Amino acid sequence: MDLCKAVEFVRSAGNEVEQARLKYLLTNEHPAQDAVNKLFSEQRSDGGWSPFWAQDYSSLDATCFWLAQAEQMGLTGSETAIMRAVDFLAGRQSLDGSWEEDKEIASFAPTWARPGDLSARLYLTANCGLWLALFGDTDRVALKAANYLQLHLNQGGHLPSYLHTHWLAGGLWYRLGWYKSAERVFEYLDTQMPDLDASHLSWLIMTVCAAGSPPDYPLVDKAASLLEQSQQDDGRWPSEDGPGQDVHSTLEALRALWLCGWITKLDSMI
Hints:
Elements: H1 3-13, H2 16-27, H3 33-39, H4 60-72, H5 80-91, H6 118-135, H7 141-150, H8 163-176, H9 179-192, H10 198-210, H11 218-229, H12 246-259
Helix pairs in contact: 1-12, 2-12, 4-6, 5-6, 6-7, 6-8, 7-8, 8-9, 8-10, 10-11, 10-12
């Protein structure tokens, strides 16, 4: 693993928010206010964010994405913009504990966000529930989400949804102390590990570590080993979404490997 090349790749190609994420990773310092303002510049009046596929709509999925970027800049739930986002997500939860995008966008929403689809509903429920457990109300909203997800978990640790739904749900259960459910889904994920690309390996590691697992947790350690091996010669970790997202993917890989202890001396690269 060549950390110097990875850092230089981000420094040479990253935008203002990505540079702030790198600085936080290297220094553990709160980002400059200009970078924070830039991060939240497209937040809508209701506290949500628009996705690329619907510019005039506040999306659950997009809002979770921006909360993840805020967490990677070292921001906490005390930030006004984060509190607004948390309120937005909590207000969109269904009575049964699940989340689903509005029916009005069903005709053009991508498959992972399509209303009426169980796979999408489970993914959004795991994603929203996890971020509310990390930033918001764990006793009411996140617990309802955890219960809803558990209803769909089979004995083999499988949920009828996307693979990333599994680590998001497992992270939520682990965060809430539901270790048996988390362990079941993590055991299933262990069998699927060879099929994961760099972006997903990073996402898995960051989710499980953010949920409170020890850095040497077996699932995390195995993912980190695979992630380290996928670095490219120029220092980047490639994104499944194409070269335009390689800076983002590289930042997530660096953060994931730092969280699980595979990187320990980033401060020497300041």
